[in-house]
Amino acid sequence: MRILLVLSHPRQDSLTHAVAEAFCTSARAHGHEVEWADLYREGFDPLLHEPDEPDRSVIGKRYSDAVQAEMARVDRNEAIVMVFPVWWWSVPAMLKGWIDRVWNRDWAYGARTLPHRHGLMIGVASSTEASFAKRRYIDAMRIQLETGTMAYCGIANSRLELLYESTRNPAASADLVRRAHELGKHFPSSA
Ligand SMILES: Cc1cc2nc3c(=O)[nH]c(=O)nc-3n(C[C@H](O)[C@H](O)[C@H](O)COP(=O)(O)O)c2cc1C
After folding, report:
1. Domain 2-186 adopts which CATH fold?
2. Which of the 8 DSSP states describes residue 109?
3. Is the CB of 173 under 6 A from ligand 1?
4. What's the CA-to-centroid distance between 108 and ligand 1, angstroms?
5. CB under 8 Å to 53, separation ≥6 — which residues?
6. What is the enzyme's class at the highest EC level (predicted)?
7. Fewest CB within a 10 Å sphere: which of 47, 54, 95, 96?
8. Which tens digit of pLDDT belongs to each residue from 127-183?
9. What number does the ligand 1 atom closest to the CA of 88 have?
């Protein structure tokens, strides 16, 4: 399967980066092709300006060249995997902006939805699984990202996977990298 791997982290030596690398290496070893979209490194502009506003009065609006190019790389892949650090119980502004601009009307939702069958979001979080459950942050993230974004845009098999306790100690971080390796090995099903 051709996978677009969308990475949102400002630092190359971050754990999030290592998680993305582990997923990629493992997915490739198991026969998938992986194309990277490293949003910070590429200098993606996450701000939605007027040319990328959805227009309800026309069907099939042509968006800005930058967005059309993003749409082309999403379209040439069969699955989307997004890797990000959890910031304020959500995705970083960079990834939010990529979705705001690229997953646009009549292309990702509306007259046309995404043709991809598989979507995975891997979030790296410093808190424990218990704290995510206690305040129902995990429910909020699932509703927003699985239901309100990926499934809303037509991706039938869409899943959020959180890797918890990212900052506890080096051994815990290494475990999360191993977990990402498993996710790549078993993609598109759950590991
Ligand atoms: C702006 C900001 C907001 C954060 N918000 C959360 C949060 O809501 N929940 C959480 O568990 N960790 C939060 N963190 C911690 C990050 O998830 C943590 O720094 C990251 O998982 C570490 O991995 P990295 O080295 O790849 O950045 C936040 C960090 C930053 C910088």
Report:
1. Rossmann fold (3.40.50)
2. B
3. no
4. 28
5. none
6. oxidoreductase
7. 47
8. 999 999 999 999 999 999 999 999 999 999 999 999 999 999 999 999 999 999 999
9. 8
